[in-house]
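Researcher: Sequence recovery benchmark, item below. Answer with residues only.
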């Protein structure tokens, strides 16, 4: 099979087999070390901010049942009387070992709770990414091919509208349209895929569309810009001069080279997804990780706040590292310095 006809996984595998050197390994180790240092800094900031919040955790746990003696004993048990640096060390070492403490609000181990909610949110995130890729890339290609025509104007206007209006606005619109008016989809709630997969999918669809709409707008604009740049390249003119069909020029030559910056932007936009999921899940009462983080903030559940923020940051940074490595594998011109 010719190189130009390789699939994307085949291209990645060939790059790895032929080009992975000690320089690449050094780059990977350097990025991993930077990731660890950044997460360490995030953990310090998160711990410091949550400890500046007013109130006493022991009082919140015991509530009206707390006598001064019981509060003092619980403070001693939780280590709240220790110096802050020692409290931080106990917390971060427990996080690394998988002991994330117990939620003050839900009274269950945080690791178990977060695992359940991450599974729920992963369905929304995967669906929103699928929606974004299915719609954004074709819209971007059409806008680039029909540059300065009505198709480009319509697509660019729709993308600008999607970026300009917030997630909660689209969520309310979709609830009124698809749930209240048409009755096609439920407006709130969560169902586990293990209990009923199709009902779970129906509950996740509206939040996923709401979350993915802004991503469609961002990626379509990026695809359009990248395609416009690539279509001006000399090798595109050469391919057309050789008599290659226009569809082959667009899909096999132009799109492949335009996808690299789009993939990079997609990785950066994962942060947007994790930020927006708090608003979207709260709006739809979808009990995932975003809803859990909101409940932790609402109830000042300090251990849960710390774990949620740290986990979201870790997933975001790891996904960006993976996207960055894929970008460098797909484009051999990138230097591993």
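Model:
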């Amino acid at each position: 099979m010719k190189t130009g006809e390789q699939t994307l996984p085949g291209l990645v595998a060939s790059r790895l087999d032929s080009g992975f050197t000690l320089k690449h390994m050094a780059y990977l180790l350097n990025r991993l070390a930077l990731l660890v240092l950044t997460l360490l800094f995030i953990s310090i900031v998160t711990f410091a901010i949550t400890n500046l919040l007013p109130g006493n955790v022991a009082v919140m746990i015991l509530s009206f049942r707390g006598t001064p003696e019981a509060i003092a004993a619980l403070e001693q048990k939780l280590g709240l009387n220790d110096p802050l640096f020692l409290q931080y060390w106990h917390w971060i070492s427990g996080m690394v070992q998988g002991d994330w403490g117990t939620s003050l609000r839900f009274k269950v181990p945080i690791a178990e709770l977060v695992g359940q909610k991450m599974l729920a949110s992963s369905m929304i995130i995967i669906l929103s990414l699928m929606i974004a890729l299915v719609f954004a890339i074709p819209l971007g290609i059409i806008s680039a091919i029909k540059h300065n025509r009505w198709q480009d104007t319509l697509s660019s206007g729709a993308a600008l509208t999607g970026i300009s209006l917030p997630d909660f606005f689209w969520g309310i619109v979709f609830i009124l349209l698809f749930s209240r008016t048409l009755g096609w989809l439920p407006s709130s709630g969560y169902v586990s895929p293990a209990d009923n997969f199709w009902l779970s999918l129906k509950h996740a669809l509206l939040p996923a569309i709401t979350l993915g709409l802004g991503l469609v707008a961002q990626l379509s604009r990026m695809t359009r810009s990248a395609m416009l740049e690539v279509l001006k390249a000399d090798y595109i003119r050469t391919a057309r001069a050789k008599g290659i069909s226009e569809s082959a020029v667009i899909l096999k030559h132009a799109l492949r080279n335009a996808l690299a910056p789009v993939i990079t932007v997609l990785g950066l936009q994962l942060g947007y997804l994790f930020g927006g999921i708090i608003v979207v899940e709260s709006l739809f009462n979808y009990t995932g990780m975003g809803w859990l983080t909101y409940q932790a903030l609402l109830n000042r559940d300090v251990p849960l706040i710390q774990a949620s923020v740290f986990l979201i940051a870790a997933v975001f940074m790891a996904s960006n590292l993976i996207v960055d490595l894929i970008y460098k594998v797909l484009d051999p011109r990138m230097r591993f310095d």
